[in-house]
Structures are given as structure tokens and as C-alpha cells.
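Please check this today:
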Amino acid sequence: MSDNRQVGTMENPVNKHDSTDNINEGSQKFETELRRIGCCKYCILRFKKVWGGPEYRVSTAESPASDNSFCCVCLGLLESAPGFLSRIKEDVVSQGYQTKTFCIAVVTPVEITIREMIIRTHFRNQFPNMPLTDLPLAKDALRWQLNNAVADMLHAQCESDGDLQIKLVYEHADTANDWKFIKDMSCFRDSLRNRKRNGEQDQPPSIQLLEETLSSTKAKLELAHFKSYPPLKVTTPMNHISYIECLHRPAFVGGRYLKFSRHLSQTPWVIDGERKSEHSVEELLAGAMSLAFQADSFKFCSAGREDVDVRCLGGGRPFAIEFINPRVAFLSETKLREIQTEINEGQHKDLVGVKDLKMVSRQALTVLKEGEKDKRKVYCCIIWTSSEVTEEHQQKLEAMKDLKLKQDTPIRVMHRRNLATRTKTVYWMKCQRLEPNFIKMWLCTEAGTYIKEFVHGDFGRTTPSVGELLSCEADIISLDVVDVLLEWPP
């Protein structure tokens, strides 16, 4: 929990107003009354504003509470904390998470908040000098109870924003419907009408809604009318976790991929539910790494993409893969080299290759996305022309620098791209005559330039085009990406 309050240490737990070792007569009576109505020792600490400290800590050696009645506020939750450790170990440790830091999130029934508010409302008159606002929540106390023991289990450090979030969700069947009295309270009528419109009338309100709605003096008096003081203790404790959710911060791997096939899509190619190719670059790369990260799923991101029939050679295309909820969140350079070798020498080595694999941060992905718009790319293509290409033609093309193109959305991508006219730049061109009507061209262009259309003109939708510049018809035979000028991975 991220908080700027003063927190108790192992040797000196802190009371926000008075030391627990030097309480005055009023606070003694206050504590006596809390015991009388059936508060557990942990809820008494909360009402006394003890923030953290050894009083809250439990261990696997400690026996859960086994009384016949349980706390009238936390419903036996905090008394049962030792028993939760075995379930956490079973669910979390057995999944094999490797993490350096963790945090615990707790979801408790709204009935705990209602009972707490009833006591606070009553105590305001009985103990006017006791500060009863801004108390530690039951979920805070439970975290303080469990943090050290879970840290020992995971061999990890507890931090407010830890990499592994362990979410503990609790329910209490015996009091599950106790909140419904608020439907008859006038202060809830407006919010309940909104909840009914949203189909939430049978769901308990959020703790935030309760706190906001019951903050007025009128609402507190009405609460006292509907719910008697003190709240009744329960005979069935909230002594088990309804379910546990674990979510580890994503892991990111960056690198550059090579695509050797003219029949391979970058991502899964599916039309009307039917796959058009057996493999994709995304699946071949992520599949090779998923086993190492043991993640639930992944997301593939790259600096642009090439068509299915376009190869990506030379320096390769920058990419990153985000692994969702990985059990292993970090791979060493040695392990990444092993994976790289496995891809480059494996059964699909004729389809894809990879280089420069490296662990990267989420922030580094902004470089990749910005580069998608701002980078330069170098291509190599084979071009057919209807007229013989002379040395003069070659020199004319190579002399052109920073050539500006006007490109309307190509016909071939009209079904998935907005209609627009885009200005793009061809920075330079180099040519090699292969046969009288065939040339090999290398060209460097601005990101987003449609190379095929630059060659054949797309029925006049790209101007100028190679055909226009050579005063003949031109078409593209093959196209390769040979470099993406972006510093990646960082």
C-alpha cells in the first residue's frame, strides 16, 4: 500500500496520535468497549490507528482462531489469517512464479465496511475525543499480517507496486445479503435508481459509494436507525479464500527479425475464419520464446510490416513481444542467445531468422512505435520496363534526391485503409541493369511509402512513378526490405 503515513517498525509500532504504550484513560475505555462488543485484537489495533508493526504479523506456525464466535467487524477474517498461508502457497508457489517483488491486493465483502461505519457512528457520541476517521482498512491489516510470511515463501520482497500482484478475494455467505437494508435508506435512492438502470440493483455497492453516501450526519443517523449497535458477532468465520488471482507484470523482448519466404505473413492471416497460411512470423518467434517465459499469452509489435510476398533481409525489422503474466519474467543474455540459435537453426530456419534478442522495458516500446512513423527503410526490387533501360535512364534515376511523391490510398488496400493523399519522400535510388528490360533497384524511402505503387503508378494514383520517370510502363517483379534505419533494440 502506497501511503505517506508514519508506519510502525518492528521495535516501535506507531499510533498516529498516541503511543500504544502511553494511552490515556479515554483510550483505555475505548479499547475496553471494543473488546466488550466483540472486536478481535486486530480490529482493535485498527480502531486505535496502529499502522503496521509486529502486532499484525502471523506465521505458518500460528494456529487460526477456533472460537465459537468471531469478530463483529472483520467477520473473523483477521483472526483466520494463519490459515490463508497454506492456500496461498498452494496456488501461488505451485505455479512457479519467479519474481523479485510482489504485492498483495485484497477484496473483502462490503459488510465489513458497513459494520465499521456503525461502530464509528455510535462511538462519535460515546468517545468524542477519539479520532475515528482515516482508519486502517481490514484489507490493510490483512496485508500486514501476510506480507512477511509470503515474502519468505516466494523469496521475494514486498513492495507497494510489486511485479507480481497476488489478489485475494473473500466472500462470507452468512452475511452476503446483509447489505440490502440500504435499499430502504433515503440517502441511497438516487444511486440505487442508477444501479437499477445498469442492471446492478442486486449487486452490493462499492466501498467508495458507501463512504460517499453515508458521509453526511443525516445519513449516519439513518444508518443507526436501520442497523442496531453493536453489530452481532458471527459463528461462521470468513476463514477461506474464495479465489486467488495472480498477475505478473509483463516481460518484453526486443530484437530484429528476418523473413525469407514470400508466402509468409507477419501475423496470422485469416479471412472469413479460414487461415491462408500455416505459419506467421509472430507465431514462429513467440512460440519459440513462450516456453521459456511460461506466459498466459503474448502481444506482437513491430516497426511496420511487409506484405506476404515481400522478404525482409539484411538488418531485419525491429520488433518486440510482450509476454502476459509470465511465470519467468527475466531471461539472461545466455538464455536469449540459446533461443536465438534455436530459431535460426531450427525446423523453420528457411522461413524466419532473428538477431539481437534483448530484454527491453515497456517504455522502450515508444521508440518502436515512433520509429514506425519516422524511420527510413531501404528496399531492393526487380523491375520490368516496357522499353529498354539505358545508362542514361539509370543516371537520371540515381541523380534524383529527396523525390516527393503524391500517393493516393492504393487500390489494393482500399478495403482496410482510409482514403487519403499522402506525401512521401524517396531519398535516393541506385540501379543495376540486369537485362534490356529488367533492372535491379535499391532505394531509400520515408516510412509508409508504397513501393509497388511507386514502381507501376497504380493507374495514376502515385505520381511520379518509375514508369512515368522513364516514359514507359513499369511493373515490380519482386521486392525485399533490406534495412530499417532505426536503432533497435536500445
